[in-house]
Design a protein that fits this description.
This protein is an alpha/beta fold. 46% of the residues lie in helices and 15% in strands. It has two domains: 64-169 and 309-335 and 358-369, 3-Layer(aba) Sandwich (Rossmann fold), CATH 3.40.50; 171-307, 3-Layer(aba) Sandwich (Rossmann fold), CATH 3.40.50.2300. It has eleven helices and twelve strands. Helix 9 links the parallel strand 10 and strand 11. The radius of gyration is 24 Å and the shape is globular. The relative contact order is 0.16. InterPro entries: Peripla_BP_I, SBP_2_dom. Residues 1-30 form the signal peptide. It comes from Mesorhizobium tamadayense.
Amino acid sequence: MHRRTILKSTVAWMAVAIVAPALFAGQARADAMVDAMAVVQKYAQKATAWDGPTIGPKAQPGKTIVVLAGDLKNGGILGVTNGVEEAAKAIGWEVKVIDGAGSIGGRTAAFGQAMALKPNGIVINGFDAVEQAPALEQAKAAGIPLVSWHAGPVIGPDEKNGVFANVSTDAMQVSTAAADWAYADAKGKPGVVIFTDSTYAIAIAKADKMKAEIERLGGKVLEYVDTPIAETSQRMPQLTTSLLQKYGDAWTHSLAINDLYFDFMGPSLAAAGKAGTDAPINVAAGDGSESAYQRIRAGQFQKVTVAEPLNLQGWQLVDELNRAIAGEKWSGYLSPLHVVTADNVEFDGGPNNAFDPGNGYRDEYKKIWGK
């Protein structure tokens, strides 16, 4: 009897030992799912309240500024450029836009043209500041204030590179939101391919964060693909076909640091017999381009973009330059991000295929400037 009791106890203990890890794993997955969905829902809401600056210097009169656009084919860079032009008109400044056309040589030449114009300020739009270090030194020596959009992983002043303020949403929040959506959509079992471009420090930081978040939650990163964003039209069709052949149905979601990667995947996916809403499901951690909005609305090979308020950020860049010219500190403003899906694609500027918050930012900046 004693031996039988011991035997029964041993069997019972072994049963618990076998079942417990499965129960704990299931609970951990459930907790991760709740956390992931909470992050997504937080950033999918309407943006109706202004949380930016309300005080600052009045408009500095008669200024001319130059926008150095990394590549105007990039929807994010184009959106910010349009915002700068709109804000400059409101503040009473002249704007000249020079396109770097997606290459280091093109951006070097553009910076040279900008310096020859002797502007009152320069906007570095969509490329790493360190790439043009000699030109930055020249601008600093000439006393020309610099502001930037996505010129590095640090938001705000970049004293090392002489940038008064680098404007961005929190890139790590953007990456987390994208990864969390993919995890939740895959019901806790995503097989992810991540697309990034090591030319840009911010792109690597975003991709690394997405990889870390997927793995932290318990998902699987199938491959981490480093391919130039400026060459997506040439590279993505064949790369998509190769990845489909390599991973098949295990590839459930794509995570990219920019919508541009998905501009050229559709034909390859369709040729492989995929419908617009079939896996792999494409999710972009920036920037909310016009084509991304159109794909999401139509259900064609993209379900999510984590959009930045590009036009608002253009206004912020002008405000930051105005503060620099007036000898004041940067505003400290961190602009909001927005998880765009088919459910909320018509919110906050959606009909115009952009995240343009309905928070009255134009009027708020005009008040600051006395316009």
